C-alpha cells in the first residue's frame, strides 16, 4: 500500500471484529512504529499490554470497541517541561506510525483519552514518571467510518515576512 493511500484511508475505528491478531504480528507493528522521530533519541514510548482484569477495571464505556488487543501507550516525562512536550510529540508520531501500519494490514485503532484520568493511572499502576498518551484498541474493523472532511490547509496558513 502506498503511504498516501494509508494516510487517506486510516480512520478512528469504533467497533472491531472478534477476530484475534496474532501477538507476533502486532509486536512487529509496534517495533516498526519505533522508527518515529524522537528528539535526542529519548525513545519515550513504553507500552502496557492491558489484560482482561485491568480492561474491565478501566470501565471504558464502549469496551474499546470490543478490540481483541488493548494497549496503553506511555510517554516518559523526562527532566523538563520541554522534554515532556517533545516526548509526547514523539509518542504521537509513534502512534501515527502504528495507525498507518495497521491500516496497511487491514487493521485499525480506536483512540481513547481515558489515560489522562487518575483512575486509569491507578488501574494500570503508572508512576509519576510517565504520561499515558493514549489507551488504544487494536483489531480488525467491523466497519470503517466515512472520512470527516478536512479544512483546506490554505485556510490555516499565514506568512510572516
Ligand atoms: C490524541 C487523540 C486522542 C483521541 N481521543 C479520543 C477519544 O478519547 N475518544 C474518541 O472517540 N476519539 C478519540 N480520538 C479520535 C478522534 O476522535 C478522531 O481521530 C477524529 O474524529 C477524526 O476521525 P478519523 O481519525 O477517523 O479521521 C483521539 C484522537 C487523538 C489524535
Automatic annotation (TrEMBL):
Pfam families: Nitroreductase. Residues 7-55, 59-140 form the Nitroreductase domain. GO terms for molecular function: oxidoreductase activity. It comes from the Bacteria. It comes from Alicyclobacillus acidocaldarius subsp. acidocaldarius (strain ATCC 27009 / DSM 446 / BCRC 14685 / JCM 5260 / KCTC 1825 / NBRC 15652 / NCIMB 11725 / NRRL B-14509 / 104-IA). This is Nitroreductase. InterPro entries: NAD(P)H_nitroreductase, Nitroreductase, Nitroreductase-like.
Amino acid at each position: 500500500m502506498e503511504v498516501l493511500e494509508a494516510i487517506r484511508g486510516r480512520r478512528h475505528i469504533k467497533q472491531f471484529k472478534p477476530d484475534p491478531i496474532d501477538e507476533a504480528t502486532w509486536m512487529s507493528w509496534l517495533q516498526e512504529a519505533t522508527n518515529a522521530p524522537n528528539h535526542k533519541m529519548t525513545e519515550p514510548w513504553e507500552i502496557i499490554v492491558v489484560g482482561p482484569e485491568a480492561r474491565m477495571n478501566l470501565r471504558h464505556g464502549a469496551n474499546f470497541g470490543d478490540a481483541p488487543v488493548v494497549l496503553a501507550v506511555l510517554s516518559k516525562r523526562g527532566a523538563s517541561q520541554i522534554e515532556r512536550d517533545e516526548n509526547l510529540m514523539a509518542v504521537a508520531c509513534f502512534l501515527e506510525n502504528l495507525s498507518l501500519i495497521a491500516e496497511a494490514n487491514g487493521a485499525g485503532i480506536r483512540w481513547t483519552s481515558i489515560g489522562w484520568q487518575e483512575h486509569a493511572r491507578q488501574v494500570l499502576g503508572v508512576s509519576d514518571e510517565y504520561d499515558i498518551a493514549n489507551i488504544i484498541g487494536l483489531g480488525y474493523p467491523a466497519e470503517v467510518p466515512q472520512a470527516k472532511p478536512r479544512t483546506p490547509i490554505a485556510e490555516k496558513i499565514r506568512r510572516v515576512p
